[in-house]
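lol forgot to send this yesterday, sorry. struct tokens for the thing we talked abt
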């Protein structure tokens, strides 16, 4: 039977078919080494913690990250872009001026909308925003009459109780007209609020050291 097939289609056609089949099997089973390595080494990275402060040292810490997972080489290239460094510098300069020269009383949602609209680079986005500066952070350890044994001092290392926003808040909720306020490392119903609640959101029993 094989002799009949070979004589019918010719030996060169048989050889071509065999080579094609072997190539197809190899492509399905073996993944190129460089593609595998690239996939393993890609991950999202924090680009910079940009301290946007007024003359009194109060304001916000803006955390920028890569929009997509990147390799180490891609990450370094993004971080070293002149427009990225210049964008951070302009944000530090222009934000306090936009809000009247002081950020102490500036609402974090108002600042987040300004920062969201402030273009820096296509490959990065704002991952978090935290309140920064001792005076501004201390708003969130004021006495809370509705919380027994509430915390009344801020640990500036853990930042527990400090007000912040996450990526969804900054890039989706607030630009769509929403407002939300989060409190770092606080639990249950005290994690978030609909207004800027300038008092403590955790007790001394819940303090993280």
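and heres what i got for the seq, position by position
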């Amino acid at each position: 039977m094989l002799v009949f097939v070979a004589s019918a289609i010719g030996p060169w056609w048989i050889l071509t078919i065999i080579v094609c089949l072997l190539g197809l099997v190899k492509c399905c089973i073996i993944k190129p080494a460089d593609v595998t390595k690239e996939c393993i080494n890609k991950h999202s990275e924090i680009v910079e913690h940009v301290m946007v402060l007024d003359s009194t040292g109060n304001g916000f810490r803006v955390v920028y990250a890569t929009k997509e997972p990147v390799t180490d080489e891609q990450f370094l290239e993004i971080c070293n872009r002149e427009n990225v460094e210049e964008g951070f510098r302009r944000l530090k300069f222009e934000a306090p001026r936009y809000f009247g020269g002081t950020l102490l009383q500036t609402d974090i949602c108002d600042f987040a909308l300004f920062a969201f609209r402030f273009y820096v680079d296509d490959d990065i986005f704002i991952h978090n925003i935290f309140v920064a500066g001792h005076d501004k952070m201390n708003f969130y350890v004021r006495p809370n009459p509705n919380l027994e044994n509430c915390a009344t001092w801020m640990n500036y290392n853990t930042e527990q109780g400090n007000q912040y926003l996450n990526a969804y808040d900054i890039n989706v909720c607030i630009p769509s007209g929403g407002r939300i306020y989060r409190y770092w490392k606080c639990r249950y119903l005290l994690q978030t609020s609909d207004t800027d609640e300038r008092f403590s959101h955790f007790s001394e029993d819940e303090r993280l050291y």
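The chain has two domains: 2-30, 43-206. anyway ping me if u want another try
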